[in-house]
Amino acid sequence: MDQINRELLNQLEKDLVPQINNVLKLELPNYVSDDRLSNSMSYSVNAGGKRLRPLLTLAILKTYNVNLTNEMIKLASAIELIHTYSLIHDDLPAMDNDDLRRGKPTNHKEFDEATAILAGDGLLTLAFEWVSESNIGNEKIVKLIKQLSKSSGSNGMVAGQSIDVNNSGKKLTKQELIKLHSLKTGELIRYSVMAGLIISEASDNEIKFMMKFADSFGLAFQIYDDILDVVSNEKDLGKPVNDDADKNTYVNLYGIKKSYELLDNTIKDGLDSLNELDIDTDLLKSFYSYFDLNGR
Ligand code: GRG
Question: HSE (CB half, 13 Å, CA atoms) of 255?
């Protein structure tokens, strides 16, 4: 994959992850009046994580030469609040019942179940507050809020989680599996890319190919997550491995070798879409270096 320059992603992470972490850490407590709720929301948000989704939005903005002010970092970080809420709720006893997330006890283990549910509720709603407050003009704010509700809600991530929960133990077909994951994992990645395109006022043609990239990146991300569950270890992953043995995953449907092949093809699709554009997409291509394909 000689089109992928890993250094560009490394540099972006070095420049922006500390800024994203800083905004999340400093801003969040200003929006929560109850101390226990505030501590529990901050506990999970500040527990680490790659910050991949805000990075994607910011990479799109950089691609369109939009100035990455502190305001933009906060706007891009709103998606991390929703992502963290989804992880807290996914770990609850009624869902995956997990004890470890991002290398630390899950929210309901550190606090209690009721607090974890409320922390998730608080993070979900706070994300919309942050978007609504940004200084990008009302028209763009409404577009972002609409896209964020669609992506995270009952026709997006929540629908994906519902299909997942209601089909555990049932073997899905390839098409059903793709649908499940394009909702559960793909939709927040879609929002991250779309947010950058809305703010940057990208053309319809650019949106078309950028969203093909977003969809293929989301699919690759899920296939890789399924592969890591089998080939990684708990220390690197920050959560238990071999946790998906009875779940609907690409590895369980195809086996590990074919899953790697599917990952290769999905990455190629995404690169092809970016190559359709006249603008410099090297930074976006560098996101594919997130997938370590050497260990197979
Ligand atoms: C509870 C409505 C609701 C939805 C939960 C996100 C999710 C939906 C479930 C998590 C299950 C899971 C492991 C999905 C695979 C893809 C994924 C979202 C992985 C975690 O995201 P990363 O790798 O995590 O970006 P970090 O910790 O780096 O932020």
Answer: 2
CA nearest neighbour of 58 among 286, 294, 293:
286
- Ligand 1 center from residue 206 Cα (angstroms): 28
Q: What is the pLDDT of residues 138-162, one digit of tens each?
A: 999 999 999 999 999 999 999 999 9
Q: What's the CATH number where 170 sits?
A: 1.10.600.10
pLDDT digits (tens, 9 = 90+) for 246-264: 778 999 999 999 999 999 9
The one-letter code for the residue type at 114 is: A
222 C-alpha vs ligand 1 centroid, how far in Å? 9
Total domains in the chain come to 1
Asked if 88 and 123 count as a contact pair (C-beta separation under 8 A), the reply is yes
List beta partners, residue 104.
101
From the centroid of its chain, how far is CA 200?
A: 20
Nearest residue (CA) to ligand 1, atom 14: 185
CB of 90 shorter than 6 A to ligand 1: yes
Q: φ and ψ at 106, to 5 degrees?
A: -65, 165
CA distance 230 to 38: 35
